[in-house]
Amino acid sequence: MQVPVPTPEPVAPDALLVEVAWEVCNQVGGIYTVIRSKVPATVQVWDERYCLLGPYFAHQAQGEFEPYDDYQLAKLSDPFAGAVLEMRKRGYDVCMGIWLVTGRPRVVLINPFQVYPSLGQIKSDLWHHHHIPLPDNDDLLHQVVAFGELAKVFLQILAAEVVPPQRVITHFHEWMTGVAIPALRREQVPVHVVFTTHATLLGRYLAMNDPNFYDHLMQVDWQAEARHFNIEPAVTMERAAAHGSHVFTTVSELTVRECIYLLDRIPDAVLPNGLNIERFVALHEFQNLHQQYKSKIHEFVMAHFFQSYSFDLDKTLYLFTSGRYEYHNKGFDLTLEALARLNYRLQQSGLEGNVVMFFITKRPFHSINPQVLQSRAVLEEVQATCEAIEQQVGERLFYAAAASTDHRLPDLGSMVDDYWKLRYRRLLQTWKTSNLPPVITHNLVDDAQDDILNFLRRSNLVNNQHDRVKIVYHPDFVAPTSPLFGMEYGQFVRGCHLGIFPSYYEPWGYTPLECVARGVPAITSDLSGFGDYVMQTVPNHEDKGIFVVQRQEKSFDEAAEELTDMLWNFVQLNRRERIMQRNNVESSAELFDWKNLRVHYDRAYELALERS
């Protein structure tokens, strides 16, 4: 039985909170996970004093947004509804409703395209008042600027609806919504502004293109580099938002340095990200769920590998990495190097067992490899044939046992019809091949230039039978609709034994946190916000199944050897030790629950109220 959680004390009971994000009902990246997962803990404290604000894109919103009709909206008496009704009176296209996620928060969505006829004037004002340059041919920037103008209008009206001593806190996430901040401050709209950058835009570009990014950070000329990467308008918006906010925040101590040198402002607070752990952890069944979803991965592995050669699945470990395809930033390069070294160690050691490593990311592809699909389809036919033979033998064996005058087991082969024997033999002849199992499941648009594939070719880590580390590169996200896995990403994570995320640049890093939330050990790095947070706040984190590769002030070779050692130690654990480790991981997950981490946000809101 779960112990009831006491209701937290309300934060600033005389304040309203509007959280503004591009990814409200609009899943395009990692901020969606931050906002969506934080909702239940935020609603628990702020209740009807909380509302989210985002852009309205019908194709994205239709599956998770339930708008209020006119009658429902008219019945609401709060300032949010009042501001929406006032905007509608003025002719704006704006809707209010419920975001159909855990917590069911109220949401205001505004169509950015409605002010496109005024874009020229809006862009002119941004240049004249804030020196934000804007090109004529960038539709994303046009959407961002249009939404910023509409968000300003909504907050102006909301501030007028509020009756003192009630106040309005506005929390903007990322540069895509932050463009509204300088206009709010210039027009002295009475709202208390918090701005969070989850990763500086320029920092991400620099890290992708400079292997010594952290060493060069202090010497960066932000404007020259922004022009070099053709992102000056967005970077200028981000800087204006950082300087215009009452409270400027970021998500980790690592990104504090970026903010100082690239945005020229020291953050006032660090807001670490969490997860709504109850969504992911089935308190008494997570070991059973691991077995259930591991069996689904077994099915994939048999279809992928066993037509070429077989190995003992009971002595096979499933490792994976996932995330945006940033070969260097996400540590794919380091992971591959460590896997090649691990493969050599295993071959030399004489230890039993194999490792199957999954790379789950997103790359342009033409189609799923027909060989992979056909292998899966034929194996399903083999399974259906085996089940038919099993049923036939079972019925005949039962009859033979009942009619038997002795106690010997009869010849089971004689109980199978020739039809099924022939079908069984022909299916296996059709399925088996001397070709090596492919390392990639899809046909990429640009196979020759893919960094992962090129490393595997150079290192000859191409699923040879003697390789102890097998590779499955899946350049699409795992989904129930996938004909290869047929499962949710979270289910796939639960079925694996270890997640590997030794990022070089990672402002926070949800992927290892999602592993921990599901009771799966994870490797991160001290150059990820999550890894840095773990090192600072979780004593004996390795005992809890969270491993941190040291990459700060370490060479690539040193980091690769440390990661190899971690993997080597992991593959030597026996089944009982792995079960104990998963228990330790699951028990530590609560440390990262939004109920515990939300307090950092509350402090930032209180600081914003004090400052303005």
Broad shape: globular
Number of alpha- plus pi-helical segments: 25
**Average pLDDT level:** 92
CATH class of the largest domain: Alpha Beta
CATH-level-2 architecture of the largest domain: 3-Layer(aba) Sandwich
Superfamily at the CATH H level of the largest domain?
Answer: Glycogen Phosphorylase B
The number of distinct β-strands equals 17
Low-confidence stretches: 1-6, 279-283
- Residue share in β-strands: 5-15%
End-to-end C-alpha gap: 45 Å
Examine the coordinates and then state which fold CATH places here, giving the name of the CATH topology of the largest domain. Answer: Rossmann fold
Helix/strand structural class: alpha/beta
* Helical fraction: 40-55%
Folded structure, characterized:
With 612 residues, the protein is α/β, with parallel strands linked by helices. The protein folds into three domains: 15-55 and 111-276 and 597-611, Glycogen Phosphorylase B (Rossmann fold, 3-Layer(aba) Sandwich); 290-369 and 438-592, Glycogen Phosphorylase B (Rossmann fold), CATH 3.40.50.2000; 373-400 and 413-429. Helices cover 49% and strands 14% of the residues. β8, α13 (253-263) and β9 (269-270) form a beta-alpha-beta unit. The two termini are 45 Å apart. It comes from Hymenobacter metallilatus. Keywords: Glycosyltransferase, Transferase. This is Glycosyltransferase.
